[in-house]
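Issue: ligand-bound run for magnesium ion - logging full I/O for the record.

Environment: standard queue, default settings, no custom constraints.

Inputs:
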Amino acid sequence: MSINWLRFVSPSLKKPPLFHLCHLPPPPSSSSAVIVAMSYDKELAAAKKAASLAARLCQKVQKALLQSDVQSKNDKSPVTVADYGSQALVSFVLQQEFPDNFSLVAEEDSKDLRKDGGQEIVERITKLVNDSLTIDGSYNVTLSTEDVLKAIDNGRSEGGSQGRHWVLDPIDGTKGFLRGDQYAIALALLDGGKVVLGVLACPNLPLTSLSDAGQHSPNNKVGCLFFAVVGGGTYMQPLDGSSAVKVQVSAVENPEEASFFESYEAAHSMHDLSSLIAQKLGVKAPPVRIDSQAKYGALSRGDGAIYLRLPHKGYREKIWDHAAGCIVVSERAKCKRTPSTRASMKLGVWSQMLQGSHWIFQRESILIWTQASLSPTRS
Ligand SMILES: Nc1ncnc2c1ncn2[C@@H]1O[C@H](COP(=O)(O)O)[C@@H](O)[C@H]1OP(=O)(O)O
Ligand SMILES: [Mg+2]
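Outputs:
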């Protein structure tokens, strides 16, 4: 059975339909689900390992974060030692595990690091990466600075709709990371242009629901690893490695009772517009603003039911900003072919009024609305 829930569209098409996840097919029967899920077992184990190691590296850096860790990129977004370290680590692990079939589309490259004055920062990244590999103990290697730069640059694949490609955002939500808030290591696998596997490591996300009253209790542990393989459901486990549980999306169907997520950063999503949409939907609760694809993880376990993402004009979403998060949510949503919730009907009306905006995901009670237009390549 073809699982064609995620459609990527070439940006070269004149009028590309937006990347969307609505009208999803039902999940495969339990027997075929097992077969589909099992065919990515090795990939899932490697992805979980890579993302967990990267998360540990990031946690270490975030603790010791200094302003001097911040560089600037052309797009002015902050880049940290952890960002590069995370990419080097994930790239290295995946290449070790899949030496004959390795293609990685990742956000960073080593260009800035190779410039004059970059040596010190490269040495710090290299030390962090080597420390992480030593603690893990699976690979008996010590990487040189050049090895680390090469590992970062091995993420320069163009991707595509043929074959397998890993897709990585080494730190999604760099602003949240720098603020000491939410961020995620987001790793997905594309096979034939479709997302078949996703892992989201969210080092600062509480293990209990964001809607729980006790979320700020000092006893509330943080650090979640969400993972999903197509046809196999979504699971969450603590980043410390204890056992995984299957998660379930929110059962709330009435938007008046739903909480909705949006970006923490007003520069990333138009808060005024989402507030208007929420108001029209009848949502009563204030927005829950968190950074990164941690929002998708939180949605997959029912912390909220609606995600509104409305980037400002001109911003182009990248494949690594949604691939892992989307499968984590879609695998956990109950299936229903026909949109029927009150919220989706209202959104349907509103999407016609907001030109260029589409809700991309509708399964039973979950709604995600974004303007994302993605292709399976880095462009
Ligand atoms: N101007 C922008 N508009 C929308 N999203 C942006 C913008 N700049 C960066 N991003 C990306 O938005 C995502 C975070 O979204 P959110 O605000 O929902 O947390 C990240 O992928 C972030 O990139 P990065 O991965 O470099 O952090
Ligand atoms: Mg990102």
